[in-house]
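User: I'm curious whether this sequence folds into something compact or stays loose and floppy. Could you predict its structure so I can see for myself?
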Amino acid sequence: MVRKRGLEPRWIAPPAPKAGASANSATFAYLLTSCQSGCYANSRPRFKQAALYFLFRVEMNITNYVILCAMTGSDMKRARRAVDRTQAEAAAKLNVTQAYLSMLERGRRPVPRKLEKRVAAAFKLPPTMLPLTRPAAKASSNRFKAVLGRLGYSGFAYLKGAARMNPAALLLAALDAEDLDARVVEGLPWVALRFPELDWDWLASNAKLRNRQNRLAFVVSVATAAARNSGDSALAATLDDRRNALEKSRLAGEDTLCRQSMTQAERRWLRVHRTAAAKHWNLLTDLSAEHLGQLYA
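Assistant: Here's the prediction. I'll summarize afterward.
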């Protein structure tokens, strides 16, 4: 990710890892942390690109990482103006000085993670404006249930205690899971339906890094069908465009929709009885929009 002062983040494609390459682990950790926190906001573009090039050349399994998009100063400024707060009022609300807030908004300082959470709470940011962060490793189905409930999914509306999470980060984390509760999987198309304005570029890029683009495209296909069934042709067209963007990267290998532990008998049955969309995206699943009408009403 390359940042320039006053502009939104721009992504650069990571080079393919070089076989046999090695790097000092301390240097790698420093560069990774620095790039994620946005501390290169005012450094020279060539240095920033060189740092990112180094990150992706080291000998590592790249699918263990995601591209992070931290909150920028311009994000903070937009959030402050959206709630009609002056800089002085916002600084007092966030318990920082006005001078420091001014430096953050102008990109002179990176926005600390702790302050991101205070901004989200103080300005009541919508979920799609929350920072895009790396999900916790091996999050449980119960964790996903709680986050879905917090986002407003009726299937888990009784769960209230979870912290809010960006819908794009939620989808990525869930789709990367080996095994999930079937009720959690049923809620994933709802996320695409409820938050069509989420950061699709970030989500698609990170899904491809983890070879999860088939899962993502299928979930969007189910959401598209649900939107069409409800009579929302505009939303269906928007989601269909997102699905079409993943066609060129469709994987030929067979996969499941977050249910790797299914038996061979179940796999044989699903190869015959799955939907056309599941077959197209080489997934073994019986999920379809027709089965989700009551949940998505």
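Summary: The chain has three domains: 1-70, 73-125, 141-292. The two ends are 38 Å apart (CA to CA).
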